[in-house]
Amino acid sequence: MSYLAIVSFDIKNGDADDYDNVYKGFEAIGLKKTITPDNGKAIMLPTTTTAGEFTGQSAATVRDSLCTDTQAVFTRNNIHGEIFVAVGGDWAWGRRTP
Predict the structure, then answer these.
(1) pLDDT one-digit tens code per residue, 45-97
(2) Burial of 75 (0-12, 13-18, 19+ CB in 10 A)
(3) Which terminal CB of the chain, N or C, has fewer other CB atoms within 10 Å?
(4) pLDDT surpassing 80 at residue 39
(5) How far is CA 65 from CA 3, 5, 13, 70, in A?
(6) Right CATH number for 2-89 from 3.40.50.720, 2.102.10.10, 3.30.70.240, 3.40.50.300?
(7) Helices (H) and strands (E) in the chain, counts
């Protein structure tokens, strides 16, 4: 089944290189800073938010895998902070600019 994952993070005392390393590491596991709607024009997600579409047996297994993979990106780059992972099936999303 297909699942949408949203991952948000905070870095403690990070610099620009730390953020670049996290985004590069996250992109390697399928999490991007943009999301593409049905019309095909990618939009930028809010700062420190990434998203990706994943397949798996359940939302919980995808979540667990992403928790492990995102934590490994932080560890590999000696970065400390917080990571929030949300995964849902039968998903839809929308964007509004007030």
Answers:
(1) 999 999 999 999 999 999 999 999 999 999 999 999 999 999 999 888 877 77
(2) exposed
(3) C
(4) no
(5) 13, 11, 26, 9
(6) 3.30.70.240
(7) 2, 5
With residue 55 as reference, give the H or E element that holds it: strand 49-55
What is the token pair recorded at 73?
A: 């990106």
Q: How far apart are CA 95 and CA 50, in angstroms?
A: 14
Domain ranges of the chain: 2-89
For residue 76, give both structure tokens: 């590999």
Q: How far is CA 79 from CA 87, 89, 90, 97, in A?
A: 23, 30, 33, 32
**Residue at token pair 């089944």:** 1
Listed in sequence order, the DSSP H helices in 15-86 are 16-28, 59-76
pLDDT of residue 91: 82
C-alpha dihedral, 79 to 81 to 87 to 91, nearest 10°: -100
